[in-house]
């Protein structure tokens, strides 16, 4: 076997974008182009001379095209270590030529899954040979350049033009991208087949989580932190930006709470206003403008610079009222004709979003300095009067407000206390380190509106002090989950003060 061999580039791509120019460029730098089936035909029709894989292996594609490149001649040419005696002996013995470049894009499993294809068609889009080629080339990156991203084609040719070869550093970079490509591909197959087969991803199972960057952000919570938005490949982003400035990292943190609010209140025409990841106003109304005005009245100071979510289509009157105050985001499931255009002209920086409030990932994954915490992303079932217990006089006449207060507490940072009156939050105390301070703040914020209101707590009262504060402020009914060792003390105090207290509302901590 001659010492000097013609350099070979094996090209096997599903997506033909840009491949003709890359093949011509490689050929111009002395590479023999090796390919098969659809890729070979595409290149030959474009004027590239191609050596067919079958001419190297002596075997045609078999099993309906399932096996083409999985052959010792091909895999050996990729994996052979230059200069290693054993590998050189095997190559000479079995007439295995070296392959120096592998270019590969994989079968479109993700696109097929998104299209709703039946299981048999989905399985046929699981690439076997391509993944094997990529992994082999990436493993042998010291000797082989592996190209898996169309965006790197121009860089490959530029590297050859400038240096006539590929540096080790460049091949290392390409190999890491290749391993990332196959890891992501396999994880998408796992998620897609789980979905197709109806198998849930459980909390306690090892996690396979492909993430695709949706948007690079200017910075994170603070300017010294880099940040980006990612989505699982098979999931649809739950919002579409219709106008306004680019979304920031902090906007997206707030938007999580807003989407939760729009989800829990979607049974009514409601408005949620969020600031620093916790609600500062919630309300329901007959119309969007009524819901917005009532929500804004809860804490107009905090609402300034916050974000707004509506559960119903936004009309022009509501849009005009919203623009009277500075907000970062207005989100809704839809907008009446002409509203978005009005907002673009009136408030060009206001981010206007069309949302899918029902979207919720099954699992919530939080990375911190302890590791990654995984939990189901769901609220407990709504409280039912038949499943809890009234202490004091039952107040079914206040149940709508009680449930609205419970829902608001459920999306508010813990410790959370919420006062609601006539379908609107009038006081929200969230993110406090003790429940008494949360109650005092909510009552202070409500002022005279506390009289005749109902109170919700996201967890049990450890002492009777918050109940005493509620009574003093004029609160007439309370919902809390119960579960404290001092429950009887709290219940007895409520009855003594004439408060109606419902226990059984389920804890809804949000840290």
From TrEMBL:
Mention one GO biological process in which this protein takes part, according to its record.
'de novo' IMP biosynthetic process
The entry's keywords? Hydrolase, Multifunctional enzyme, Purine biosynthesis, Transferase
NCBIfam families reported for this sequence: PRK00881.1
User: What are the residue boundaries of the MGS-like domain, all occurrences included?
Assistant: 1-148
Name of the encoding gene: purH
Q: Could you tell me what this protein is called?
A: Bifunctional purine biosynthesis protein PurH
User: Per the similarity annotation, which family is this?
Assistant: Belongs to the PurH family.
Alphabetically, the GO molecular function entries are: IMP cyclohydrolase activity; phosphoribosylaminoimidazolecarboxamide formyltransferase activity
| Domain remark in the UniProt entry | The IMP cyclohydrolase activity resides in the N-terminal region.
EC number(s) stated in the UniProt entry for this protein: 2.1.2.3, 3.5.4.10
Which reaction(s) does the protein catalyse, per the Swiss-Prot or TrEMBL entry?
Answer: (6R)-10-formyltetrahydrofolate + 5-amino-1-(5-phospho-beta-D-ribosyl)imidazole-4-carboxamide = 5-formamido-1-(5-phospho-D-ribosyl)imidazole-4-carboxamide + (6S)-5,6,7,8-tetrahydrofolate; IMP + H2O = 5-formamido-1-(5-phospho-D-ribosyl)imidazole-4-carboxamide
Q: Which top-rank group of organisms is this from? A: Bacteria
Gene3D superfamilies under this entry? 3.40.140.20, Methylglyoxal synthase-like domain (3.40.50.1380)
Name a single GO cellular component. Answer: cytosol
InterPro entries xrefs: AICAR_Tfase_dup_dom_sf, Cytidine_deaminase-like, MGS-like_dom, MGS-like_dom_sf, PurH-like
